[in-house]
Automatic annotation (TrEMBL):
PROSITE patterns xrefs: FLAVODOXIN_LIKE
Protein known as: NAD(P)H dehydrogenase (quinone)
Domain Flavodoxin-like: 48-236
Top EC category: oxidoreductase
PANTHER family: FLAVODOXIN-RELATED PROTEIN WRBA-RELATED, NAD(P)H DEHYDROGENASE (QUINONE)
Cofactor(s) the protein needs: FMN
Family, similarity comment: Belongs to the WrbA family.
Gene Ontology MF annotations: FMN binding; NAD(P)H dehydrogenase (quinone) activity
E.C. number: 1.6.5.2
Length: 249
């Protein structure tokens, strides 16, 4: 009687078990019987590049929490990058800027095309992005000429010294960079929910993106500011996953 309990004998042939000592010593255990090498294809994760400039560490704190949020979404990876510094070492020392850690590499213009989504973070300078970030955008002319970044979802997160120092203007004046490249601006709106409406504490951020108040440089990001940053990362990852890989578009 067949193994399944039917009326006819089973046609399935059961191969005898092979002990390790019975295996052909000339056949590699990592190959198939026909000597082909089995290939395991790992699914490629979508990548969101989190590209930032941070002088005193406030923007970097947001960036690291954004990365946490990105990686809450299965199949999406957050990758941290710094833009190159434009100030001299002596100037930075005079401004009491702490030394930057070596765990985050500097981004190159050519690497941007590998991203499926982009989030740019920077402090404000008179209501606009800092000179370091602007210098980096100015160096992307080759990508602009060929519209290599067209269709890529992108967004911003910022740092300002005061409550009226540009939490919104710093982001929306940067939208021109995305427009010329043909990128798709992704604000967070009010998707953070009730956290966007609470008035019981000072909080950076706006519908344009996450934000932090740095004060004179000594204020640390609040828990709610960090939570908003993490939310932005998760929200962007959801959008990017919906769009799919930029390389296949």
């Amino acid at each position: 009687m067949g193994k399944g309990g039917g009326c006819c004998p089973s046609k399935q042939t059961i191969s005898p078990s092979v002990n390790q000592s019975d295996q052909d010593p000339h056949q590699s255990p990592s190959t198939n019987p026909d000597h082909s090498i089995p290939i395991t294809i790992q699914p490629t994760k979508l990548k969101i590049f989190i590209v930032f400039y941070s002088m005193y560490g406030h923007v970097e704190s947001l960036a690291r929490n954004i990365k946490k949020g990105v990686e809450e979404i299965d199949g999406v990876e957050g990758v941290l990058f710094r833009v190159p510094e434009t100030l001299s070492f002596e100037t930075l020392m005079a401004m009491k800027a702490p030394e930057k850690g070596g765990d985050v590499p500097e981004v190159t213009v050519e690497e941007l095309v590998e991203a499926d989504g982009l989030l740019f973070g920077f402090p404000t300078r008179f209501g606009c992005m800092s000179g370091q970030m602007k210098a980096f955008f100015d160096s992307t002319g080759g990508l602009w000429r060929e519209q290599k970044l067209a269709g890529v979802p992108a967004g911003f997160f910022v740092s300002t010294g005061t409550q009226g120092g540009g939490q919104e203007t710093t982001a929306w004046t940067a939208i021109t960079q995305l427009a010329h490249h043909g990128m798709l601006y992704v604000p967070i709106g009010y998707t953070f929910g009730a956290g966007m409406f609470k008035m019981d504490s000072i909080r950076g951020g706006s519908p344009y993106g996450a934000g932090v108040y740095s004060g004179d440089g000594t204020r640390e990001p609040s828990q709610r500011e960090l939570e908003l940053a993490q939310h932005q990362g998760k929200y962007m990852a959801m959008i990017v996953k919906r769009f799919g890989s930029h390389s296949t578009q």
